[in-house]
Amino acid sequence: MKVFFVSTPRGEGELREKYRQIYDEIPKMGYTHVSDFINTNSVGFQDKMARGREEHKKFYHDMVKGIQSADICIFETTMPSLGVGFLIQTALDYSKPVIVLYYKDNTAYFLSGIEDDKLIIASYDDNNLKKVLKKTLTQAREKRDKRFNFFLSPKLLSYLEDVSNEQGVTKSKILRDLIVEHMRKRNEKS
């Protein structure tokens, strides 16, 4: 199972060691990394971004591609970062199970306000990191989407593609939203 793990490169010193511990523990639990961005330090990242727009575009596309290819996304958010927040929302938009970790009492208040059943937020400390990581990864595995195929007539597929393009979302998201809406209406009748 593939994991996308990211934190802000601004986290230096003690935080950098926490990021490394999480990164190193993930493969020990049987998962595969799809990104090694965690190995990027603040100075290296700034130097790379100073090269210009092409580097910015490459970085953006690499991050989104990593999210798309992952089964589960993990973000360490002890050090606040708008970029990491954007990536969290992107992962949720792709319907990926998202684990948000923060060290001790550094609660991500803004992220805690998100209502999404794919979002798991957990605190860890020096004594319970492995336990928290194992528990949240188990929860995330249970929240993964299940894939199934079905056939559509060309007319229905054309309509679905038009709506997808208009709304700027995937065809799968449109179908999921329709099913959720149907479930909500059915529950209201009960």
Protein topology:
Elements: E1 2-7, H1 14-28, E2 32-33, H2 42-49, H3 53-69, E3 72-76, H4 82-93, E4 98-103, H5 109-112, E5 119-124, H6 129-143, H7 154-167, H8 171-189
Parallel strand pairs: 1-2, 1-3, 3-4, 4-5
Features:
single chain; 190 residues; alpha/beta; Rossmann fold; 2 domains; 8 helices; 5 strands; 55% helix; globular
Q: Can you walk me through this structure?
A:
With 190 residues, the chain is of the alpha/beta class. The chain has two domains: 2-143, Rossmann fold (3-Layer(aba) Sandwich), CATH 3.40.50; 154-189. The protein has eight helices and five strands. The chain has helices spanning 14-28, 42-49, 53-69, 82-93, 109-112, 129-143, 154-167, 171-189, and strands spanning 2-7, 32-33, 72-76, 98-103, 119-124. Strands 2-1-3-4-5 form a five-stranded parallel sheet, with helices on both faces. The longest helix is centred in the last third of the chain and has 19 residues, at 171-189. The radius of gyration is 19 Å and the shape is globular. The model has no long low-confidence stretch (mean pLDDT 92).
Along the chain, the helix and strand elements come as EHEHHEHEHEHHH
Structural class: alpha/beta
Which range does the strand content fall in? 5-15%
Count the beta strands.
Answer: 5
CATH topology of the largest domain: Rossmann fold
How would a textbook summarize the main sheet?
5 strands, parallel
Provide the CATH top-level class of the largest domain: Alpha Beta
Low-confidence stretches: none
**Span between N and C termini?**
39 Å
Q: Helical residue percent?
A: 40-55%
Query: So what's the overall shape?
Result: globular
